[in-house]
Amino acid sequence: NARKIAIANEKGGVGKTAMAVNLAAALTLEGKKVLVVDMDPQHNATIGLGVAVDDGMVNIYHLISRQNPSQTQDTVCRTKWKGLDLIPSHMDLSGAEIELVDEEGRENRLKDVLSEIEDVYDYIIMDTPPSLSLLTINVFSAADEVLVPCQTHPYAFKALGDLFDTISDVTEEINPELKVSGIIPTFFDRRTRVSRSIIEKLHTDERYKDLVFESTIRTNSAIAESSDIGKPVVFCRTRSYGALDFRAVASEFLRRK
Amino acid sequence: NARKIAIANEKGGVGKTAMAVNLAAALTLEGKKVLVVDMDPQHNATIGLGVAVDDGMVNIYHLISRQNPSQTQDTVCRTKWKGLDLIPSHMDLSGAEIELVDEEGRENRLKDVLSEIEDVYDYIIMDTPPSLSLLTINVFSAADEVLVPCQTHPYAFKALGDLFDTISDVTEEINPELKVSGIIPTFFDRRTRVSRSIIEKLHTDERYKDLVFESTIRTNSAIAESSDIGKPVVFCRTRSYGALDFRAVASEFLRRK
Ligand SMILES: Nc1ncnc2c1ncn2[C@@H]1O[C@H](COP(=O)(O)OP(=O)(O)OP(=O)(O)O)[C@@H](O)[C@H]1O
Ligand SMILES: Nc1ncnc2c1ncn2[C@@H]1O[C@H](COP(=O)(O)OP(=O)(O)OP(=O)(O)O)[C@@H](O)[C@H]1O
Ligand SMILES: [Mg+2]
Ligand SMILES: [Mg+2]
Fold first, then answer.
1. Between β-strands B123-127 and A34-38, what pairing exists: parallel, antiparallel or unpaired?
2. Is the model's pLDDT at A190 over the cut of 80?
3. Whose CA is nearest to atom 23 of ligand 2?
4. Under DSSP, is residue B231 helix (H, G, I), strand (E, B) or coil?
5. What is the CB neighbour count within 10 angstroms for residue A199?
6. Residue B206 has pLDDT above 90, yes or no
7. CA distance B174 to chain A (A)
8. Contacts 24+ apart (CB under 8 A), A170-178
9. Across chain A, what does the average pLDDT equal?
10. Which residues in chain B have Cβ-Cβ distances shorter than 8 Å to A197?
11. pLDDT of res. B237
12. Calpha distance B73→B35 (Å, rounded)
C-alpha cells in the first residue's frame, strides 16, 4: 500500500506546494509511482503540475463533500510525466469547512476517499492550505507521516510549536499512527544572518533537532519560474539549485525510512 | 474618523504582515496616529511589533467572540513607539469561524468593535490570515479600502482574480464602500526574469494596471531579521532597502489619497 505523506505548515508561503510538486517529481525519477492530492482551494499544486482546472471536471471537492457520487478513480488526472498522477483541487473546496460542520466523521472524508486507490501507488503526497482547519485535519487523518517545510525565517520557525501541538492532538483523537517524519529548511540563503540563525535554532531545539533534514532547499528563482509554466523544476531546469536540492531531499527522504 | 485599511491576499507568505507592521510604522513617521489590528490567529503582527502575547491578556478574540464583556479600549496595547498602538491576536481566534457559524451578523463583529475607538486614530491597519474565511470577511466589512501586497511570483499573481471576486461579493452584500486602493509588488528582485515578468503583467492587466503602486518592496533580509527582534524594519534598520521601500510606499499611499 502507498505511504501517505502530508506536506504541512500553517505559516503561509514557506514552500509547501513547491515541496509537494517537486518531491513527487523527484520520487518518480527514483522509479516510484506517485499521486499528488491537492487539498488547497487555491489549487496551486494543480497549477504547478500543469493541469488545467475547469469547472466541469470532478475534483477533490466532489469527493470530500460527496456532492457527486463519483469514484475516486474518476478524479485522478494523468500529468505529462509517467508515474506522476494528480487529484486536482478547485476553489469550491473552500466551502467544505462550513458545509460539513454538522457531519459526523467529517475529519475522515479524505481517508475514506484514498482507501479506494492506495494500492496503485508507492507514495501519495498531499498539499495543504496555510491553516489548521478541517481540510488540513482531513489530510492529517489520512496521512502516515508529515513533512514540514520550514522557511528559514523567524515567523515560520515560531509556527512550528502550534503545528506540533495540533499534530499531537490529532494523534490522540483521530490518527494514532501519525508522526512528523521530517523538517526541511526552505528558502535557505547562507549569506543572510537570519537564515543561518534559524538553521542553528532548528539543529539545537530539543523538539526538532532529530527531525531536521541535512538537505535544504536554497532560495532559487528557477523554482518560482517553473510554476509559471506548470512544470516541476526537477523536470524543466535539471541543473538549477532547485532541481538539485529537491532531488537531494528525495534521496534523503528514502534513506531516512 | 480613522481611515480603515485591510491588508489582504489569500496567497500565503506574500508580505501581508510585513506590510501591516511597516506601513503603520512609516505612517507614524509622517506624523499620523495609527492602530494595527491583528486578525491572524498566528499573531505575527503582534510578534512583529514586539508585544508579548500572554493568555491572561484580552485580545481581538475576546472582542470578536464577545466571550468577555470588555471594552475595545481595554484590548489596545501601547507599543514601544509613540503614535503606534496594537490590538493583539491569539491562537484562540482560530476557533471563531466555527463558534460563530450560526450567529446573525457574524461578519460585522469587527466593524462594531472598531466603531468605539475609531475617532482616536488617523489610520487603522488590519492584518489578515492567508484565507478568505470569516476573519478576513470581518476585516472587509470594517474596512474603507484594501491594500494588496502581491509577491512578484506566478501563484501570487494568479491569486488576485479570486481576491477581486471576493471583494466585489463583499461590496454587493456587506460593505458597498469597500474598494481596492492599491496593489503593491513585494519580494521584487529585478535580477530575476520571474519578478520582471510579474511586474509587467501587473502593469498591463486591465483589472490591475491603474492600482499598481510605483513603489515596490524589494527582497531584503533586513525585513525578516527585524521580525526576529519584534521591531519594524523602518525603526531598527533605517538605511536598509526594506526601510526605504516601506517609507516610499507610505508616502505614495498618502499621495494617492
Ligand atoms: N526555495 C525557493 N526559492 C525561491 N522561490 C521559492 C522557493 N520555494 C518556493 N518558492 C516560490 O515562492 C512562493 C511560495 O512558495 P509556495 O507557494 O510553494 O509556498 P506555500 O507554503 O505552498 O504557500 P501557501 O501557504 O500559500 O500554500 C511560490 O511562488 C514558489 O514558487
Ligand atoms: N520584501 C521582503 N524581503 C524579504 N523578506 C520578506 C519581505 N517581506 C516579508 N518578508 C519576510 O518573509 C516572510 C513572509 O512574509 P509575511 O509573513 O509578512 O507574509 P504574510 O503574507 O503575512 O504571510 P502569511 O500568509 O503567513 O500571513 C516573513 O518571514 C517576512 O519577515
Ligand atoms: Mg501552497
Ligand atoms: Mg501574515
1. unpaired
2. yes
3. B13
4. coil
5. 18
6. yes
7. 19
8. A170/A137, A170/A140, A170/A141, A174/A107, A174/A108, A174/A137, A174/A140, A174/A141, A175/A140, A175/A141, A175/A142, A175/A143, A177/A144, A178/A140, A178/A143, A178/A144, A178/A145, A178/A146
9. 96
10. 228
11. 98
12. 12
The answer to whether A192 and B237 have CB atoms below 8 angstroms apart is no
Nearest to B98 among A11, A101, A151 (CB): A101
Report the C-alpha gap between A233 and A17 in whole angstroms: 12
Which residues from A are below 8 Å from B131, CB to CB? 94, 129-131, 133
Q: What DSSP assignment string belongs to A82-149?
A: TTEEEE---GGGGGHHHHTTT-TTGGGHHHHHHHTTGGG-SEEEEE--SS-SHHHHHHHHH-SEEEEE
What percent of chain A is predicted at pLDDT more than 90? Answer: 94
What is the phi/psi pair of residue A27, to 5°? -70, -30
Rounded to the nearest angstrom, the minimum Cα separation between A13 and chain B is 4
State the Cα–Cα distance between residues A77 and B1, nearest whole angstrom.
Answer: 53
What atom in ligand 2 is closest to the CA of residue A10? 26
How confident is the model over B126-139, as pLDDT tens digits? 999 999 999 999 99
Dihedral in degrees, nearest 10, Cα atoms B46, B48, B54, B60: 0
What does DSSP say about strands B84-87 and B77-78: parallel, antiparallel, or unpaired? antiparallel
pLDDT in tens, B48-89: 999 998 888 899 999 999 987 778 999 999 999 999 999 999
Give the number of residues written for chain A.
257
Q: What phi-psi label fits residue B86: left (phi over 0), alpha (psi between -120 and 50 degrees) or beta? A: beta
* DSSP 8-state assignment for residue B70: -
Q: Which amino acid is at B59?
A: N
> What's the distance, CA B237 to chain centroid?
21
Do residue A12 and residue B130 have CB atoms under 8 angstroms apart?
Answer: yes
Q: Does A200 touch chain B (CB under 8 A)?
A: no
